[in-house]
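User: Teach me something about this protein's shape.
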Amino acid sequence: MRLNNLDLFTGIGGWHLAAERNGHIETICTSEIDPYKVKFIDRNLGLDNAGSIINVAVPAACHPHSSYADDDRVAVEETGFTSLCIEDFYEGIIPFPDSITGSFPCREVSPANTLNNEGINGEHSSLIHEQLRIIEDLEPRYVAMENSELLRLRGLDYILSEFNRMGYCVEYETVAACHFGLPHYRHRLYLVAYLPDSAVGQTNTRVFDSVRKMATKHPNDTIPFMNDADQALLDFATVREPKSIKLRTKRINALGDAIIVDIAEGIFAGITHCEQRDNRRSKPKPRSDEMYKASLTEQGTWAILQPDLFDPASQSLQDLPARGLMINGELFSGPRDPVLNPAKTMYPSVFSTILRRDGNNNFTCKSRLNRPGRLGGVIGDLMRLGCSEGGLNPEFAEVMMGYERGYTALKSK
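Assistant: First, the predicted structure itself:
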C-alpha cells in the first residue's frame, strides 16, 4: 500500500518529512515560491516544484508556461518550475493524489499579526481558496492542513462548509508542541478531511487518536525550561556574528512558518493504519463523547437547530469549538483534550515559539521586550535570560521545532 501526496505551500518540507518517516506515502510534487524555500526543495529534498499554487491543476491553456511548449521549449528548464496542469493528471503523466497536504499562509489569521486580522479573506491567507479549488478538482481521499489556532474564529466556518459541499467529513484538533518533547506551546489547528468511502470513513476512525498516542513526551525533553537555562544553553542559542552564517535569517524565518513534524507523522499514521485494515464496514458517525454543536444552514453559517428559547443569541454559533467533527453538515465536539491542547498555564516556564520574523531581529532589538504576551518570540525570551549581542542560532531554532541540527542549511549544488 502506497499513497501519492501532493504537497502545497511546501516550505521546508514538514509534511514531506512526515511522509518519509511514515514509509507508505510518496510526495509526487510540491508547490512553493519563496526563493530560499524553492532552493531548499530543489537541493535538499530533490522534489519537483510547481511554483505558485494559483498555477497548480489549471488547464494548460491558462497556464503561464503554455507559451514555452508553443516555442518547443521545456518550461522547467526555463523557469525552474514544473508545469502541473489539470491535463497532466487526466493524461496519466502524474498520478492523481490520494492525499493533499498544505499549511496555507496564516499571516492574517495569526495572533502575531496585530494590525490585520482579516482571516482567510486577507491578502496572503486568502490562498486557502486556491487550495480548496485544487482539492475540489483533484478529489483526493484525504486532505491535511495546519494553521493558527485562531482559524476557528477567522475562517474555519467557511472551510468546513466548503468541505461539506464537496462531500468530505472533517476532523480537526487544536494541538500544541509541548507534549512532543518541544519547549514551547505553539498551539495550532490541524485539520483532516476525508471522503466517507475512504478507509478512515469506513472504519469510523479518529485520525487524531494516532496523534494522541505520540504525545507522550515532556516539554523539556530536548531543551530545558527557561528557569533551568544555563550558560551552555545560551551559548548554543547565540551566534555572536550573525552574518557569519549563510542565510541565517532565511533559515530561522522558514522555521517560524514550519509545522511540527511529529504531529504530521501522527496524522499520517492514523490514515495509513486504516488503509491497511480490511474491516471497512462502518460509516462516519459521532461517538458517545462527541456532542452535537451546530448545523450548517442554507446561508452557509453554523447554527444550533434547537436553541434555548430564552436566549435567541444561541441560535448562531459564532465561536467554533477548538476541536470538532463535521459529518453531513453537522458539527460535533467533545471536551478539551489536555494532552493535545494543554492550557497555556500548564508549564509556566516554557519558551515562546519561533516566529516568522525571528531571523530579522537580533538580541539588540529592545522592542521585543515590550511586545504583549508571547509576541516577543524566543528572541525576547533569550534577551530576558541575558542574551544581549549577536543573533539567534538557526540550529537552536531547528532543535526547538523538532528538526535535526543543520536541517535548514542548503546543500551544495
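Now, about its shape. Residues 363 and 383 are 6 Å apart (CA to CA). The longest helix spans residues 261-275. If you'd like, I can walk through any region in more detail.
User: That's plenty for now, thanks!
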